[in-house]
Amino acid sequence: MQVTIQELKPRSTVVELDGTTASQVNAIRRTLLADVPKLAIEDVEFHLGPIRDEATGKDYDSSTSMFDEAIALRLGLLPIPTDLGEFRRKADCTCGGAGCPHCQVMYSIDRKGPCTVYARDVVPLGDASLATLEPNVPIVRLGARQALLAYATAVVGTAREHAKWQVAQGVGMFPRMHVKIQKKADCSEACLKRAAATCPVNILEVAGGKLSVTDEVKCIDCGACEKACEHGSIQIAADEEDFFLRFETDGSVTTREALRFALKDLKRRFEELREAIQGIG
Ligand SMILES: [Zn+2]
């Protein structure tokens, strides 16, 4: 298999995999979707009852316009930067699941109305680099005498348990397309030009009466050029061995790290299977 990185940004990537099969690329796609772990807020402890502002002596009400459950759900969806080398699941941690700096992160929220509580108000206790990556997400609006005082705990999980732990988004695979051009006898230059003009990604050009493809990789298989030439001079075919894998992440884990983890996880699972088969004898 030959791998070519077409695009590599921290939150989005396109990788070309040549000399493989659809099922192999699909296994990577599904692992990216379901098995890459990350931190997400799992427990939220709300202060119930009056909240006193020590500076002014004013009392605030802890009940807000939204149910606590809805606020907790919103907090759970905030992307938290996750170093996969540092954090692990509670069940796999050396602390035995009691909770330690390697398996959980604590946050506090302390706001008094009237105001809007944003994601940036969810403050990590300790390491400030663990603040959410989307500080401007609104959580809840507080009225004049309302306050929100809560402690939240983020733990490592995967999308198999809940979508809030889903690192990769928009994970898609598609075959590399081949544009075959063979000018039929009854086809004219004008017809080829008309067909080239229909291409939405502008990869066809006509020069000296000949139609050519400038950048085949960009073909999106829309079929517009194929339809435009009724003589059948242009044919688009999908490759059965070359694929593109495209995905984004919410930023909690970079695309590079997510792909690396997915490949390592697949390898581990197949090794476990191999050992189990050997055990059968
Ligand atoms: Zn631990």
Structure in words:
The structure is a single chain. This protein is an alpha+beta fold and 281 residues long. The chain folds into two domains: 2-35 and 170-246, Gyrase A, domain 2 (2-Layer Sandwich), CATH 3.30.1360; 38-165, Beta Complex (RNA Polymerase Alpha Subunit, Chain A, domain 2), CATH 2.170.120. It contains five helices and 14 strands. It has helices at 22-34, 68-76, 189-197, 224-228, 255-280, and strands at 2-8, 12-18, 38-46, 51-52, 59-60, 104-112, 115-118, 123-124, 138-142, 147-157, 168-181, 204-207, 210-213, 234-249. It has a four-stranded antiparallel beta sheet with strand order 1-2-14-11. A hairpin with a 3-residue loop joins strand 1 and strand 2 (12-18). Helix 1 (22-34) crosses helix 5. The longest helix is centred in the C-terminal third of the chain and has 26 residues, at 255-280. The radius of gyration is 27 Å and the shape is elongated. The two termini are 31 Å apart.
